[in-house]
Amino acid sequence: MKRFGELIYTPEQASGEAISKVETHTPKIEAPEVVKANEPFEIKVQVGPHPNQVAHSIRFIKIYFEEEGRAFNPVHIATINLEPEYAEPKLTVTVRLKKSGVLYAIEYCNLHGLWEAKKSIKVE
Ligand SMILES: [Fe+2]
């Protein structure tokens, strides 16, 4: 029996048929490399180009943050649930961080599962 985390695809771990899905399913994270402590900034996550139909679409995007020095990680930053055909797979959120860490974006495609991307952010 696998740990749940082993069910999440990443570009590094994708194998077999999943390799052909890396480009269209791995979330793209746009965020600064360096931010100032407690100063608001934007994180954008998008997926695709990907079909957006009832039979096949991105159903949610989540952002988590692994904060350096925190006893328990991650922190849930945001989730967007998406209605097929109506909502595009994009999420923008304004965030303030106190400490450096790693952002994780997770998306779920109803046919191709969970996909992860990550990005380090340094807080000065
Ligand atoms: Fe898909």
Task: Please tag this protein with its features.
1 helix, six-stranded mixed sheet, 124 residues, Immunoglobulin-like, mainly beta, globular, binds fe (ii) ion
What's this entry about, in short?
The protein is mainly beta and 124 residues long. Helix content is 3%, strand content 45%.
Word description of this protein:
The chain is mainly beta and about 120 residues long. The protein has a single domain (about 5-124), classed as Immunoglobulin-like (Sandwich), CATH 2.60.40. It has one helix and nine strands; from the N terminus they run βαββββββββ. It has one helix at about 20-25, and strands at about 10, 30, 35, 40-45, 60-65, 75-80, 90-95, 100-110, 115-124. The strands form two sheets. Strands 1, 3, 5, 6, 8 and 9 form a six-stranded mixed beta sheet that branches. The longest helix has 4 residues, at about 20-25. It is globular and about 45 Å long. It starts with 7 loop residues before the first strand and ends with a strand. Bound molecules: fe (ii) ion. Fe (ii) ion (FE2) binds near residues 50 and 111.
